[in-house]
Protein 1
Amino acid sequence: MNGTIQAPTLEYAQLAPMLVVFGAAIVGVLVEAFAPRYLRSAIHVPITLLSLAGAFALTIWQVVKGVPTKPAAMGAVAVDGPSLFIWGTILVLAFVSVLLINDEDHFVAAAAAVPGSAEEEQALHEGAGHTEVYPLALFAVGGMLLFPASNDLLVMFVALEVMSLPLYLLCGLARRRRLLSQEAAVKYFLLGAFSSAFFLYGTALLYGYAGSIDLAKISAALGVVGGQETLLYIGVAMLGVGLLFKIGAAPFQAWKPDVYQGAPTPITALMASGTLVAAFGALLRVFWVALGGLDWNWSPVLWAVAILTMVVGAILAITQTDIKRMLAYSSIAHGGFLLVGVVATGAAAGQNSKALSAILFYLVAYGFTTVGAFAVVTMVRDAGGEAWHLSRWAGLGKRSPLLAGIFAFFLLAFAGIPLTSGFFGKYAVFQAAVAGGATPLVIVGVVASAVAAFFYVRVIVLMFFSDPAADGPSVVLPSRGTAAVVGVAVLATVFLGVFPQPVLHLAQNAAQSLFIR
Amino acid sequence: MTTHYLVLSALLFAIGGVGVLVRRNAIVVFMCVELMLNACNLAFVTFARQNGNLDGQIIAFFVMIVAAAEVVIGLAIIVTIFRTRRSASVDDASLLKY
Amino acid sequence: MGESITFWVLAVVSVIAALGLVFSRRAVYSALMLGVVMFSLAVLYAVQDAPFLAAVQIIVYTGAVMMLFLFVLMLVGVDSSDSLVETIRGQRFWAVLAGLAFAALLGLGIGNAVLSPPKGLAAANRAGNVPSLAELIFTRHVFAFEVTSALLITAALGAMVLAHRERAEPKQTQKDLSRARFVRFGQLGRNPGPLPGPGTYARHNAIDMPALLPDGSVSPLSVNRVVARYEAAEGTLPPEVERILQEEALSERANGHVARPLGEEDGK
């Protein structure tokens, strides 16, 4: 035993955005422990927002200073162009979602009290609330930042759990329809744990194959190690199951509508935007950095998954009568469109950066629109909470033309109508796919978009061309936070739809450097 | 010998998977997931010996940490829903459906 | 040779225990079976040059995780058992079939991989298993190690959010409780004393036998509900007790009382 361990080198500057977010989360926990109840919310909100803004600033500073070309933290984290772009996206989306969370009316007063009990009544009466949602959300955001940036499968697994555990909890904290919310938490948790077991077994088999969990070393082992291809193939398949589950790709999409419906709407917004972005970042990194040399094998499978996801998402969305479930299925369909972009990655570096920049742009565009749409959902309310049933939305255009107009605009962006951000997102992804030789996939994608457009238009027709019910839902006056969220989302959707060039350019720059191999 | 260990871990993993699909008590389902994680750990430890490096053992160690945290969260969620419904069956929780 | 004997014994034990976990009806048995699997795996780790993991497996898994499972099972009710009714027709059959296919795929896939003879950990463990692991954890994997702290904090925070109730009013003292009991006696005529023990004035001296009142009738108060529920499931409950319990439940429902579980009962 030599007894001395050389101290590891940690590139604090590169890791700073993550460290700031995690640090703020821990400060939040301390606030929970020591601050008096009536002050907590007032302390949490600035800490949370400032830390997210600070992390965003640090990310920008990183980009300006020059994108690192070597993995950081002893090879555990890869802070490269795509990572930084994804970090920026996640941080902005998280900032916006926190503004929604700030409207604390959505969260349960006392999670430990049985729904409908006298105890809950009293907690509601006293105006109690769970301010723990802020540190929990920050932990989730920290996991989201680490997930796409992890450079080995162990860090990726830990990040997956850091991201998921707070979300499982947050799902169960809705103030109204608490049974639904608790069920959503149980379902999300059990299925999430099940899928992470698959991810882990896949990791084990890849480790057995390559003798290492570094993505780069796995890539180097491809084709060198002989006689163990079965380990590799089964491992890749199981790893893929774990990742596709997080994205909600068919046939692993079953959790998404349930969880999106049951979770408090601000948390749904955070999941629909941040988690999707993070999961796609991780998927790209694994399939590209580690398994790029194997694309001959996984590409056909991803073709099938992409087609199935688009079709399932688009068709099942038509049958929905609940606005949140409909948005969930729309998110599944968009996951399918994004997978088209993943399939479009190819052997040539040029093609790769084209597909990558298309995906990055799409993620930004979709993230903003979806947060905005969920923000609108929080504002249309019945006596018992948000009005989810589509029939309740009938005639909203006559009652509140502005809100209905904004929502219609978001739906058109989902459908990919020109002059909205969704159009350029789809256009870029499909163009990359055609260039990558995946034309049949693009045809399916276009047909699925048309089907999807049908149900978006149906909702718009329902809002504007049918008579409002006499006892219809009321549109609450938004709090400043919610109004800001809707405003930002509208601006982003318009801006990306009319002048996509700056963001496309950014995405191209980010994609230029590709992932660190 | 390595193959034997691996086949054992595959068997345990598959049994756990069947359990998740078959059982309906949420706690038992969760135990089956734990069984799957244990099977993964066996595979990691075996591969560590096969490959002659300690990375596998490190991962197994991390899996245990993660599993411990996951159990706390999972059981807290299950207890909460039990308090509400007085039942831990996955089927009784069925407000959500297509 | 020694290794293969250990392996075969423990392999058989752990597979049987795993099957027991999946197919036993009572959740407590499942938990105990899981404990057996975890113990066997700990020994297999020790055999495979992973003494540290063997210890951690026993401390963390069988020590902490299993105990937590058992606590929650006790809390949720040990007598909860799965119904055997299928909600999705044929689900069980297809699940088992899929499991078999999956096991065959995994087993064949792994069994077919041509593995070189194991390199062994002698070189990697030269400084001792624990120091070598420590070196890796605190150098190469230090970031993952630090990030797991976020997991642990999340877990603690989550348990607090979901399970901790803050007391809204001052704790009731013995005096308050006793006063409340007598107030209830005055208003509703409910017995303020402790419940009668089972077997009092009875012909048996067993806790599943109800006490007899001086007039020879059965006292429902003396029947332990958990025992009664268990016996009702087994079909060994004396018919008279069953009738009385049912009548009581009916009248409680009619009065708008929800049957309270044991332990929150008054007068204890």
Note: Chain A has one domain: 12-512.
Protein 2
Amino acid sequence: MIILNIKKIREDFPILKRKIKGKPLIYLDNAATTQKPIQVINAIKEYYEKYNANIHRAIHTLGEEATEKYEEAREKIRRFINAKSTKEIIFVRNATEAINLVMYSWALNNLKRNDEIISTIMEHHSNIVPWQFLRDRIGIKLNFLDIDDQGFLRLDHLNKIISKKTKLIAITHASNVLGTINPIKEIVRIAHENGSLVLVDGAQSVPHMKVDVKELDCDFLVFSGHKMLGPMGIGVLYCKEEILESIQPFLYGGDMIKCVSLEKSEWNDLPLRFEAGTSNVEGAIGLGAAIDYLNKIGLENVREHDANLTKYALEKLSNISDVEIYGPKNANKKTGLIAFNFNNVHPHDVSHILDDEGIEIRSGHHCAMPLHKRLGIESSARISFYIYNTKEEIDKFIEALKNIKKILKI
Amino acid sequence: MSEIYKEKIIDAYKNPKNFGRLEDADIIIKDVNPGCGDEFEMYIKMSNKKLKDIRFSGKGCVISTASASFLTEFVKNKKISEIEGLEKEDVIKLLGIELNPVRVKCALLPLMIIKAGIKKYKTMKNVRE
């Protein structure tokens, strides 16, 4: 076990020096987006100051350098998730776009009426809405796995509802509300025995734990760069090469072609076939720098730090009366986030009052309205941690939370 | 401490006026704040091109509930045209607090529903200006 030097890590994040309403910033909304270390900011700055050019086409030095860095970032991502080849790493805008790519390029062309997709009640809207579109477009059926009272997936239901009609299981690796980590390896085994593919939403897992696509054997993995120290507007679709080779492109235009005549066009090789138009070069380079930073710390240490903070916060929260916590109470079985409600106070008010103390937390339905309905609530408040958070920050959060009663006179 | 959680706001939140239902409502209409899923249902009784009575039900935050309380009180016995003319600034004036853009959405939810209710009533009754 290595104890992270949090003080040193915090120095890498310029934003942590700022004050909110005169109070030091306590940033507890990392499941929405993380802050960026100076190394990532500098990587983007350096790109624009030293080698900005459009990639893949230019013969000149700048173009060559930019292309090299862009492809270097792709290789860093390949290694990070242990993909077989960089052909399997597609740059997209975010996890949502990656799911849409899979829906339009693979599902729309390969599924037919009465085929089925299994998803879960704990999905982010991004892993529900595209499949609803597909259902309405071609008449597939959607089934959703439920959760138990503790917020774990009812895996026993999977064997009951999976059938030869099931073409895809679209599931989150970790819930952005409950924090629940789903047994993806087991689900992939069941799916593959049945001849179904598996899409894993890794938006909440890839930033926080070691995710190995070879070990999981999933067919698709999607995640966003901005939730893992990288810039916004860059995300990744991992897809097995044989699937990518067999499906139609998503977007059409420049860069994704080998040869164009007025009669027809020939598609480019992987992965560029799926990256039409000028790419988000600064995004890819920034994400590459973020991965370097995470590798330096070590994903196992990130996971341990998250779990320590979560355990501490769960203990503190359970000591306050009238706090209802959603999802598993065991920090080792969830990612570093806790959704809760406090004393019937609306989460917007909780968030607003905490903001007056410089504490930034999430409130609302967190793009998971079906899950909130399942929990019997409209909305919740959520704290989520990352490498720069401390127990002292959690203490201040707890103190501010207790103070809400006084402010609202309850 | 926050500027927005003033006594009159918190009082209106804890004991909102016109909370409940109207049995003889001409219009029952609800809407939701997509940002948080808050939902209010308004019961509106009309008479002689005026809003005669109004109740609301649902669960919201301090700001949206206080806004519903003040606004339902304000629109009673007002002419359709007056209610149609109500703007963001009028709601903020009723509340007497400054709000950031996200919380303005909370404050405006009740007004949006009342205006939609009036529109529905006009379509139903084919009311002319």
Note: DSSP finds five helices and three strands in chain B.
Protein 3
Amino acid sequence: MKEELIISGRNLPHIDPHLNLWHWQISLYLFLGGLAAGILFFAALVTLLGKEKEYEGAVKFATLIPPIALVIGLFVLIIDLSHMWYAWRLYVTFRITSPMSWGAWTLMLVTPISFLWVMSYMKEYFLYWRWKEGWLHKIEWVVDWLANNRKLMAWILIPSTIILGIYTGILLSAFNARPLWNNSILGILFLTSGLSTGAAMIILFGRSHKERKLFSKIDLILIGIELFLITHMFMGMLAGSQVQLEASELLLGGQFAVTFWVFVVILGLVFPAILEIFELIGFRVPVYVPALLVLMGGVVFRFVMIDAGQLTRFLY
Amino acid sequence: MKFWQKNTRHIYWNPYFGGFMLGLLLIATFYITGRGVGATGASKSAVITTVEAVAPTFASESSFYTKYYDEEKNPMKNWLVFETLGILAGALLSGALSGRVRFRIQHPPKMTPKRRLILAGLGGILFGLGSQIARGCTSGAALSGSSVLSLGGFITMFSIFGTAYLFAYFFRKLWI
């Protein structure tokens, strides 16, 4: 006799009536991951172009952020797991079709390099330490070796930070059951947003007027691209099926509309862009105002996308 | 030299022109939002939110706070809060256009910055109290009220500026 087990009805806590599993930890992690990717990307780019001396804020000072950001991000990501002691299992396999696997392995590459990068500048942070004596002398060769091989680290960082930035978006867009996330723009949108917040952070750490001006320009271009991508995301959804229409409705007039339009689009993108344009023309605007607004917009954007995305679904 | 590179730090609009523009702004506000402007509403919302978070039982029993107490609705989701955010953003833009944006404490020559801050704080507290007694401030009651010919608006307007005119005599030594 063949036995058949039939399950009827749905009793899925935290999944019905809508997904309620991902909280502030995920939003914060996605922001910090994107920020770290952005800063390291620009630091690597400046290094490969051989402009370290001109853009010290980017290579030497803003790069203090990524190790901290990644450690905090990964820590909150792990405490969010229901079975946190099994997190290591991500590292016993590699699945080419799983964004989470890509992310786990990319982080395994980027996080140590972010630490080594900071270490390679140790001698320049602590100019007055006696590097020829005691225990410092024992690690001096490591620091020297890292400083000499910074270009190698930069070559590894360029592709891996791009993967890291895109992965934060692909992680969401791979959820084919969440219509708000399930679009092809999200990966590149999160990458752009990550690069933009990275550029904003470099502005805050900028050591010269020239550096702040360059990264203001870069940030301005990235904001433009981001607005373009957001428009396209909505165009795609509005041309989609009913579930996509209802998903976009959350941001276009529903529960998250005010947060999204006021704090992400207006105060996080358009307004800092106007301030940056003013500054580039020659008006005096304190550079940290647009930079902080861009960072704020980046945080709110992640929170809105995570919270709104979980409310959208195919079943009604 | 372009006009914005000149030192225009202290060039402000003519106050009468400013007042005229404020009137136009008010018309635009009525047209767009269907109601007048307000300035103290945002801080009031912030206070209500804080009280509701810190002492919910007090908020639900107090005769003042019950009017705004609603567990479902967040008091910060008030259009005045967003209007105030807009004021901050617009003021920053306007200041940047005149090259006036920087951190400083403006104070009369004879007054120390510390004294100026303390007096400004005291004045702000008095104004906050007054605006709650009058159910509106210069913008919410006087400006928006008188523009719709509300008698209360006119009384508020004349009381605020009238008493200011009277008391200015006694405090003039602080400024000159």
Note: Chain A touches chain B at residues 258, 262, 267, 271, 274-275, 278-279, 281-286, 289 (CB under 8 Å).
